[in-house]
Write a structure and sequence with these properties.
The chain is 19% helix and 26% strand. The chain is an alpha+beta fold. The longest helix has 10 residues, at 30-39. It is globular and about 50 Å long. The N and C termini lie close together (6 Å).
Length: 176
């Protein structure tokens, strides 16, 4: 399976301001998730910031954390936000998005999210419950969130490309 590595494209001052923060907690099992939720009790109500690192591991941080801090400043296979619920006593993912203005991942990063959650034994929806489409304006260079299929730059009114174009990305072949 081909996955893509996304580099941080957000403001450099944010990257510098969180450079000394610890990376997000790796979640490789349901037990890891239970431990993280116990240490972060607000996460059941608020959700969490997540990335999938280049090793395919889910990493979690409290909801208002910067994705670049959660990733330890590294490239990611996916980034966004998660909300949890309990199915009986078992935690599972109720909502998941690719909303990260620091990495601006394409919607095809779902494959990396699904693999990471599956490896950790965490039940999730069949896809993003909230997909965010990011595009860079080829006229003014600004990053845009495309809403309701309107591919027009909010900064200069130029048409936006239909294909993902935020930054160069490299493909990573996985065995899964």
């Amino acid at each position: 399976m081909l996955l893509y590595a996304y580099t941080y494209v957000g403001p450099e001052e944010i990257r510098r301001s969180v450079a000394s923060f610890p990376a997000g907690t790796p979640i490789t099992s349901r037990s890891d998730l239970e431990t993280w939720l116990a240490a972060n009790p607000d996460a059941l109500a608020e959700g969490a910031t997540y990335v999938v690192d280049l090793q395919g591991r889910l990493r979690l941080a409290p909801r208002r954390s910067e994705h670049v801090a959660c990733a330890g400043g590294e490239e990611v296979l996916a980034a966004g936000e998660l909300r949890f619920r309990r199915a009986g006593t078992t935690p599972c993912v109720a909502e998941v998005s690719n909303q990260s203005t620091g990495y601006c991942p394409d919607t095809d990063c779902w494959a990396a999210v699904a693999l990471a959650l599956g490896r950790a034994g965490v039940t999730a929806p069949p896809g993003f419950t909230h997909e965010v489409i990011f595009r860079r304006c080829e006229r003014c260079g600004e990053r845009n969130l495309v809403k309701e299929g309107w591919f027009v730059c909010v900064f200069c009114d130029a048409d936006l490309p239909t294909g993902w174009n935020i930054a160069p990305r490299r493909g990573i072949q996985t065995s899964s």
